[in-house]
């Protein structure tokens, strides 16, 4: 690391401490003895979302959160819970080392999470996400959901 005082190209690390988003390092120039602090951050590769029409856009956690908020309107679901779900979804995708994820995959993951948090929010989200063509297809989804719930309670 180049010294900010004398521009000498070499320095030694005196102290190193991790923080939430970076590693803080205290350095000392081997030539002039000047001390300075640097921060080392992990460079995140952008996560891309492939839409149904095959267009690609960058992943926007706020957009995902807003969709979930609409589903949870007038429901007893805390904002912190929804933010945690969005964070968990993004983290799990990044941990799989995926650079692209389909909007269908995102929707499926949101539905799985909402099913555990609030059943009404789950049904609301599913109704938009699945784009039901008629009432019978919506009722089929509800029947499947009810059957799954009965199987879990046994």
UniProtKB/TrEMBL annotation:
What biological processes does GO assign it? negative regulation of DNA-templated transcription
Looking at the keywords, is Magnesium present?
no
Question: Which Pfam family would be a valid example here?
Answer: Zn_ribbon_NrdR
- Could you tell me which residue ranges the ATP-cone domain spans? 47-137
Q: Which GO terms describe its molecular function?
A: ATP binding; DNA binding; zinc ion binding
Q: Which UniProt keywords apply?
A: ATP-binding, DNA-binding, Nucleotide-binding, Repressor, Transcription, Transcription regulation, Zinc
Family recorded in the similarity comment: Belongs to the NrdR family.
Q: What does this protein do?
A: Negatively regulates transcription of bacterial ribonucleotide reductase nrd genes and operons by binding to NrdR-boxes.
Q: What protein name is recorded for this chain?
A: Transcriptional repressor NrdR
Species: Urinicoccus massiliensis
